[in-house]
Design a protein that fits this description.
By secondary structure, this protein is α+β, with helices and mostly antiparallel strands. Helices cover 21% and strands 32% of the residues. The protein is globular.
């Protein structure tokens, strides 16, 4: 609950059940992505070693998913990306939990972080169905390569976030315009990094293009105990 306005007569307005999200452009992403792209394409060519052996029902078409240990790979660019991703998660968690951590005497240095990480290479016609990430608190996406999205397809390869409040669509009128969208579509951009709660349902709209679309995804859970 967050206070949004306080009136002269003492009335207080609050915002309830907000969904936090943060986004940024990673500094130096041009050089970072130039190192990541050939490495990911090389790994894609060896699915036995690097591909996720599990079968998922919400991944369709020309979509390659790696194993979920990407940030453990011994590669300088991957290590650098890991630092950027986790730094944004730590910052977000500290801001969201500032009041609660201060009351409990919790410091970020005293927390243990568990991480899952992987990459996707999506080619013409690939897409990722609606899903969430269980058993984690924060998830993120880093856009390595936008690809060559064909302009004939609106929102080609966009990341779509769904409103977590199922009752929001029960009635729309002029009094609730800011809350009636239902979805938020994020356009891929090379170097863009976003972090959002793992319980937020999301999907990737179908991608059509000649060049591969490449993204990195990760999940983070934070617990007491030095990381």
């Amino acid at each position: 609950m967050r206070e949004t306005a306080r009136m002269p007569d003492g009335r207080v307005h609050f915002s309830l059940f907000e969904t936090p999200m943060v986004g940024c452009m990673v500094p130096g992403h041009e050089a970072l992505n130039a190192a990541l792209v050939p490495r990911f394409l090389e790994m894609e060519r060896d699915p036995v070693r690097y591909g996720d052996p599990r079968s998922w029902s919400n991944k369709f078409g020309a979509l390659f998913e790696s194993r979920w240990d990407l940030f453990e790979q011994p590669h300088p660019a991957i290590a650098m990306l890991r630092e950027h991703c986790l730094a944004l998660v730590y910052e977000t968690a500290a801001i969201v939990n500032e009041e609660f951590w201060a009351t409990a005497g919790v410091e970020l240095a005293g927390l243990k972080t568990l991480v899952e990480s992987w990459f996707h290479v999506t080619r013409n016609g690939g897409w990722h169905g609606l899903h969430k990430h269980a058993n984690n608190s924060w998830s993120g996406v880093y856009f390595v390569r936008r690809g060559s999205a064909a302009p004939a397809y609106p929102k080609n390869g966009f990341l779509r976030l769904h409103d977590p409040r199922p009752n929001i669509s029960m009635f729309h009128d002029m009094a609730m315009i800011p809350f009636s969208a239902g979805v938020i579509d994020i356009e891929p951009q090379d170097g863009k990094l976003i972090v959002f709660p793992s319980w937020l349902a999301h999907e990737v709209l179908p991608y059509f293009g000649d060049e591969p679309r490449i993204t990195v995804a990760f999940n983070v859970s934070i617990h007491l105990g030095a990381r």
